[in-house]
C-alpha cells in the first residue's frame, strides 16, 4: 500500500508539471542558497587560513594602538613610537625573539619609459624574506649595505616585473618611483618569486625597498607601520608575546599604544567572523525555505479542492482516512524532497563556480547539506499536514456531489 500510495502521489504531481515546479522553487532556492553560502564561507576560510599559515607558524605582528585625547581627539599618532631605533632593543631584551622586521608601505606610481604602473612600495629589511618565507626568483633582496647607506635599490614583485619589462631582464635597469609628488630613480636588484594573493593583498604587485630609504627619502618620517617578530626555537608563541609585551609596556608605559597578535589569534578571529557571517547569511537564506513551505501548503490545498470528487470515489470504494492522509502527505514530502535534491545540485554548482572564480579550495559542507535537506523535508511534512488532514476528513457523500 505504501508504494501504491507513493505512485498515486507522484501521478498527482505530474498532472500539473509547471505548477508543481513553481511550488518547489522556494525549496530549491532555499536549499541551494544555504548550501552555497555555508560552503563558500568554508572555502574562503580555508583559503585565508592557508595564506596565514604560509607566513609561518612562528610569527607575531606588533602594530600601533589607538589613544584618544580630550573630546576624542588624538593627542599623537601612536605610530610615532614605532621607530627603527627600538628594533635592536627588542632583540636585546626579548630572548624569545630571533628576528624583528619593520614594515612601512605606501601607494606609488612606477614609470619605465612610456610604461606606468600603480603599485604599493614596502620599506623593510633584509630578514623580510625569512619571516615571510618569500624569496627572490632572480637577483637578490635588500641587504645590510642597502639599509646602512639608504640606497635606491628596489625589488619587484613578479607581476610588476612582467608589466614593466615584458621579456627584458629587469636586473640592473632603472625605474622612476613617484610617491606623493616626489620622483626618485631606483635600480632594480631583484625580482620576487610568484606568490599570488596574500593576507595583505596581491604580493606580486608590490615592490620592496630599504626601510631607511623609505623613511629618509619618501615619507621623511622616522616611524613604521608594524613589526614582524619571529620567536626563537624552543620558545612558545605565548612566551615570546609576553616578552614583547613587557618590553613595550616598559618602553611606552601604556598598553593601549600597541597591539600584539599571534597567528593563532588571527585564525581565531577569522573563524569567529566567518562563522558568524555564514550563520547569519544561512539563516537569511533559510527564510526562503519557509516561503517554499507556504507554497507547498497552498498547492496542496488547491489540489485537495480540485480532487474532491476523486477523494469521494476512493472513500466510497473503501479507502480509509489514513490512506487519504498518507497520499497527500507523500505528495507534500515528494515536493520538498525533489526540490531538496535539485537544491543540493544548485548549491554545489554555485559553490564550484565561486571557488573557481576566486581560485579557492572547494569545500562542500556535508553538515550544511544534511541540515538543509532535512529542514526541507521537515518543511514539507509540516506544511503538508493541514491539507492532508482536510482531505482525510472530507465526507464521501458531499465529495461525490461536489461540482
UniProtKB/TrEMBL annotation:
Main location group: membrane
Q: Which residues form a coiled coil?
A: none
Q: Where in the cell is the protein located?
A: Cell membrane
Which keywords does the record carry? Cell membrane, Membrane, Transmembrane, Transmembrane helix
CC per GO annotation: plasma membrane
Can you say what this protein is called? ABC transporter permease
User: Annotated Gene Ontology MF terms?
Assistant: transmembrane transporter activity
The keyword Membrane appears for this protein: yes
Transmembrane residues, as ranges? 21-41, 279-304, 324-350, 362-386
One matching Pfam family is MacB_PCD
Cell membrane recorded as keyword = yes
**Domain MacB-like periplasmic core as annotated: residue spans:** 20-245
Q: Which residues form the ABC3 transporter permease C-terminal domain?
A: 284-396
State the annotated membrane topology for this chain.
Multi-pass membrane protein
The record's InterPro entries line, in alphabetical order, gives: ABC3_permease_C (IPR003838), MacB_PCD (IPR025857), Macrolide_Exporter_MacB (IPR050250)
The entry assigns this protein to a family as follows: Belongs to the ABC-4 integral membrane protein family.
